Amino acid sequence: MWSGILQKVFKVREKVALNLSGNTDEEKPFLEHLEDLRTMIVRIVVTLLISTIGTFVFYKELFRAIQLPLIFAGLAKDEAGATQLLQNIDVAGPFMMAINVSLITAVIIAFPLLLVFLLQFILPGLKPNEKKLLFPAIGIGTGLFLAGASFAYAVVLPKALAFFDEFAKTVGSRQDWTLSNYVTFSTRFILVFGISFELPVIVMAMVKLDFLNFKIMKSTWRHALVGITLFAAIITPTPDVLTLLLMSGPLYVLYAICVWLAYFMEKKDRAAYPEYYAQLEKDEKELEQANNDDWDNENYNPWSSADDDEDKDEYQAPAATPSAPPPEVEKPEEENLGEDQGSRMPDDDESASQQSTQEKTLEELAREDEKRSNDPPA
C-alpha cells in the first residue's frame, strides 16, 4: 500500500517538475525520489528536535499559557484555579505534558523552515526567478498558520471548553479533566486550526501550476463548500457542530479570497499572453462542439457511432461481374433417351458426347480408306 502511495506522489512530483522547468528528459528513478523524500524527512526531524530542545527550557511558561483558555472560558478565575482544575493520575503525566507543549511550540516557531523543506520536495525544478517567489509564499503561509493557531487559541478553544462543560451539566455529570488529556486536546486543537488555514497557499499553488483556474473554481464553488465542510468535519478534534462551524466558516472566506485572487492572476496573464489564451478558448469551443448531443436530430441513430459511418463510407462493394456461361452439353443419342436424365452428372454427359464424336470420326476414316482402295488409280 505504501509503495503505491509513494509512486503516485512521485508521479505528481514529476508532472510538477515538468510544468515548472519544461524539461523533457527521462523520468527520475524511483530510488532518487525516495532519496529526496528521505532528505526532506531528516531535515524536518532535525529541525523539530533542535526546536523542541530549545522550547523545553520554557515549559513552565508554556504550561501557564496553555491554561489561559480555561480562564477565557470562565471555568477558572485565575491560574491557581486552572491548576487545581486539572488533575494528574499518571506518573509521567507532567513530563509528557511538558514534552507535548514544547513540541507544538517548536512546530509553530519552526514552521517557516518546515514549509521551505516541504516546498522544495513538492516543487522541484524551480527556476532562479521562481525561487525568489518562495519567500513571499512562505511569509504568507506562516502568517496564515499563526492566524489560525491564534484564532483557535483565543476564540474557538474557550468556546469548545465552555460548550462541553455546559453539556456535561445538562446530564448531571461533573467535569474532572486530567492534565495529560487537556494538554493533548488543546495542543491538537491549536495545531489543526493552524494547518487548516494553509488552504489559500495550497489553492494558489495549484492555480500557479495550472491545475486550477478561475473558470473551474467559479463553476465548482458548491463542490468546494461541501469539500471544505467534510474536511473540517474530519480534522476537527471534537464532533460538535459549533466547532465545525467555527472552523469551516473562516475556510469559506479564505476560499472566496482565493477565487478572487485567481481571477486577478488570470486577468494579468491574459494581458501578458493574449495569443495563448485565445488558443485555449478556441480549443475549448472545438471540444464543446465535438461533444454536442444529437438526440434532437431525426437522422440520429443511437446504435451507431461516427467511426462505423466512416467505415461504411470508405468500404465499397465490388462491382458484380457476369459469371462464365455453363458449358454446352450435347444432346444424348436416341438410344439413351430412356435413361433417367436427372441421375446423370454433367461430367458424365460431356465424356459420353466426346466419346461418340471420336467413334464417328474413326468410322468415317475407315470408309474413306475402303473407298480409296476400291477406286482404280488414275
Outline of the structure:
The protein is an all-alpha fold and 378 residues long. The protein has helices at residues 2-21, 30-56, 59-72, 79-85, 93-109, 111-122, 128-131, 134-170, 179-196, 199-208, 214-219, 221-235, 241-272, 274-290, 306-314, 346-374, and strands spanning 86-87, 177-178.
Spell out the key features of this protein.
two-stranded parallel sheet, mainly alpha, 378 residues, single chain
Low-confidence stretches: 329-340
Count of DSSP E strands? 2
Order of helices and strands: HHHHEHHHHEHHHHHHHH
The outline comes out as elongated
Instruction: Summarize the amount of helix as a percent range.
Output: over 70%
Category from helices, strands and their pairing: mainly alpha
End-to-end separation in angstroms reads 120 Å
Widest sheet: strand order? 1-2
